Amino acid sequence: MTPAARHVNWDFAERVLDALLPGSTAYNPDRMTGIPLDAWRPFDLTERDADAVEDDFLSYCNDLEGPLIVVNSTSFYPDQGPYFVEASNLRDFVKAFDTRVRDYFMWTDVLVVSPATGFVIVVQDDGYIVKVRGNAIMTVQRAVGAK
């Protein structure tokens, strides 16, 4: 029996996660380190309107910068893998996700890693969210005169 194919971007994405939160081995809250239990906050995914859930999630992401690694349920399909999204395009990515990928973005666990800020945001489908700051491992280059 041949093992299921793993998207080629997973190794890179996992190395970035480990650099931000040393000891983390997978985009799975059970295999991530550096997230205190008391940091988790209630975050209902089921009893609210889908747009309200997405907007609430995006409010946690408003201070992210640069390239992001975004993982949701579809990321684990062999033909998808982790998504790489510029922070300034995250809102459009989330809001148009169901049209592009034909699946609801917040269907189950969602993880966002921001190498430039060190932030890691995790939404668990059992109704919790956490935002922690790990190690920032890159800087965002801005054009001369840009703010």
Q: How would you characterize the largest beta sheet?
A: 6 strands, antiparallel
Radius of gyration: 15 Å
- Gross morphology is globular
Structural class: alpha+beta
Order of helices and strands: HEHEEHHEEE
Spatially, the strands of the biggest sheet line up as 1-6-5-4-2-3
Can you tell me the residue ranges where pLDDT is under 50 for at least 5 consecutive residues? none
Number of helices: 4
* Number of extended strands: 6
The average pLDDT value, as a whole number, equals 92
Q: What level of helicity do the residues show?
A: 10-25%
Oligomer: single chain
N- to C-terminal distance: 54 Å
Binned strand content? 15-25%
Describe, in plain words, how this protein is organized in 3D.
The protein is of the alpha+beta class and 147 residues long. Helices cover 22% and strands 18% of the residues. It is built from four helices and six strands, in the order H-E-H-E-E-H-H-E-E-E. It has a six-stranded antiparallel β-sheet with strand order 1-6-5-4-2-3, covered by helices on one side. A hairpin with a 3-residue loop joins strand 5 and strand 6 (128-133). The model has no long low-confidence stretch (mean pLDDT 92).
